[in-house]
């Protein structure tokens, strides 16, 4: 996934990350055990940062792992983090962990996506939600955003589509600002151009206000097999990843937001 132009000096790139994080040179210097003067010299190209300094600044600026590699290359150093395909034998232990985790969430839906929202693994709970979706939308590579927001995908069955769509698009915008990926922006422009849902803001698409369904977070309310199921979504990532592929994986789980949803899923999948 393309991120930054490699013909740009590392100083301006680091300054861009610092400004994006709304951090002053002095604050960054204090966090990285440096001086504001040295940070200024690095950003203007008057000083060449060491490999250790690039990594230290990237860590305190919370730069994604892929972009840390790009910063190292621009600064004249070798990439630090490998990018291993998920089907590589070296990833066998990770695949086993992910599969056990997804099975453990059953009958509740759970899936794993990469940085482009491509579904790399899913459990049987997810397949229950996909019943009735046209085969052409299920052809690999399956993309979670396309599948959810496409007018022939899950969108017609999501009762609170205006709110859910707005939340997903906002999530994508935050991700675009973080990783600066042209491919991700193209995906955003594609799904954002899908026909917007009808209905007034703040309604669930069926004439009720979202506040009619008390919940600690925005629920996904979707019709499945003639029943309305309600889920709360959570997203988890791996802590301190040392591989680009692992760093970009996200595990999304859909837990029942009410007892009726939980009981129905357990009845479908004992």
From TrEMBL:
Cross-referenced SUPFAM superfamilies: lambda repressor-like DNA-binding domains
Residue intervals of the HTH cro/C1-type domain: 14-68
Domain of life: Bacteria
PROSITE patterns: HTH_CROC1
Coiled-coil segments: none
CDD domains xrefs: HTH_XRE
InterPro entries (alphabetical): Cro/C1-type_HTH (IPR001387), Lambda_DNA-bd_dom_sf (IPR010982), MLTR_LBD (IPR041413)
Protein name as it appears in the record: Helix-turn-helix transcriptional regulator
Organism: Streptomyces halstedii
């Amino acid at each position: 996934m393309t991120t930054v132009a490699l013909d740009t000096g590392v100083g301006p790139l680091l300054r861009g990350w610092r400004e994006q994080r709304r951090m002053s040179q002095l604050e960054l210097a204090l966090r990285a055990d440096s001086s504001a003067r040295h940070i200024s010299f690095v950003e203007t190209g008057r000083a060449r940062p060491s490999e250790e300094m690039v990594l230290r600044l990237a860590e305190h600026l919370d730069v994604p792992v892929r972009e840390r590699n790009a910063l190292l290359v621009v600064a004249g150093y070798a990439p630090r983090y490998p990018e291993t395909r998920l089907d590589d034998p070296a990833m066998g232990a990770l695949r086993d962990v992910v599969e056990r985790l997804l099975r453990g969430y059953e009958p509740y839906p759970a899936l794993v996506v990469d940085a482009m929202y491509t579904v790399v693994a899913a459990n049987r709970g997810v397949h229950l939600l996909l019943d009735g979706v046209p085969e052409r939308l299920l052809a690999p590579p399956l993309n979670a955003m396309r599948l959810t927001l496409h007018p022939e995908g899950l969108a017609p069955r999501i009762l609170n589509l205006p709110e859910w769509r707005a939340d997903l698009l906002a999530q994508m915008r935050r991700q675009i600002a973080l990783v600066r990926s042209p491919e991700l922006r193209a995906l955003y422009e594609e799904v954002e151009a899908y026909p917007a849902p009808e209905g007034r803001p703040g309604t669930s698409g069926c004439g009720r206000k979202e506040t009619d369904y008390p919940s600690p977070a925005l629920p996904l309310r979707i019709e499945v097999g003639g029943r309305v199921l309600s889920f709360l979504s959570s997203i988890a990532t791996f802590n301190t990843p040392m591989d680009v592929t692992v760093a970009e994986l996200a595990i999304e789980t859909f837990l029942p937001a009410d007892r009726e949803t939980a009981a129905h899923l357990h009845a479908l999948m004992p």
